[in-house]
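To close the section, here is one more complete example, presented without commentary so you can practise reading it yourself. The ligand is 2-acetamido-2-deoxy-beta-D-glucopyranose.
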Amino acid sequence: MKLSQTFTLYGLLVLVLFSCQVTMASWFYLGVASLAAQTAKQKPETCGGVPGLVYRQIEMCKNNPDAILCVGEGVRLGIHECQSQFRYERWNCTTKQEDSVFGPVLTRATREAAFIHAVTAAGVVHAVTQSCSAGNLTDCSCDMKLHGRVTEDGWKWGGCSDNVDYGVWFAKTFVDAVEKESDIRSLVNLQNNQVGREAIAKQLHLRCRCHGVSGSCAVKSCWKTMPNFNEVGKFLKKRYEKPTEIAPRSKKRLRRREKLFRKVPIKGDELVYLDPSPNYCRQNPDKGIMGTRGRECKKDSKGPDSCDLLCCGRGYNTEVIRMVERCHCKFVWCCKVKCKICETMVDKHTCK
Ligand SMILES: *[C@@H]1O[C@H](CO)[C@@H](O)[C@H](O)[C@H]1NC(C)=O
Ligand SMILES: *[C@@H]1O[C@H](CO)[C@@H](O)[C@H](O)[C@H]1NC(C)=O
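Output:
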């Protein structure tokens, strides 16, 4: 790296350090400012300048400079999955390139905040574990605990099993470091972080393969792999749809708000919330609500993307759009594909 560039990077970190001590800064920033993660990796002593890190996280950043890149990658995974899961909903998981990243949505313990906490915690587990398996981190590698043993079906454990224990440990230590453990808000976040970690740890897949001459299956081996991150997103979205409301006066331990079920302990896969969600219909920048004006909706859908639901009953505008496509393609011997050009008109609806 050129000297001038290095100075710019330092400049950025110093600037950010001195100018943005805003309350909202958070480690999520590592996901949108890959520069900050990159610099912290190359110069671990700059970890203190990354906005939003608490003391414990700065220490982990200094001691595991490679892993800090994974944290950034994990946040990006989480953001991407969040936006994909919510792309047709009123709240669509908008983020900003600022240190608050998710904006004021996280100031209240709503089910949306719960999803963000879970999906980013899961992202960190996923990214760290993948780096372990790729041999990119010094503190971990593939999980060899089962190597040499035999599965129930008589297959041998082999290959590289994803070392999810390390990923879970890292994510727990790093992500949970923000929480104080003494107030209810922290307890809620801790529970949701855990749901995210378990969404991976409890869903490991078994993969097996035959080896041997021409598929003779002389050697059969199995290993464990993490679920695809999209599966993790789907799993968490289901939990988001059935969240558990917490009694506002819970102390030390979370309790359900619903009196009848107070005694039923909260399970490891329940996303929890304290505050009811706004309807996200009208723009309100102070609360980080974008509103649904201008969002594209589907006229005949019955789901959340229907014009009725997405536009909150305000109605929608319809535009006719001309689409030009290749069509009626034919294979011509040999070897060409000939197409015609077709024009179609499609209606595009956007919320008023
Ligand atoms: C491992 O490191 C290599 C080289 O830096 C990089 O290309 C690759 O994406 C990394 N893999 C993971 C899973 O982090
Ligand atoms: C979410 O919706 C807003 C409009 O309300 C739009 O500007 C934005 O691009 C959308 N974000 C994503 C990630 O789809």
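Once you have examined the tokens, check your reading against these statements. The chain has ten helices and eight strands. The pocket of 2-acetamido-2-deoxy-beta-D-glucopyranose (ligand 1) is lined by residues 130-131, 134, 136 (CB under 6 Å).
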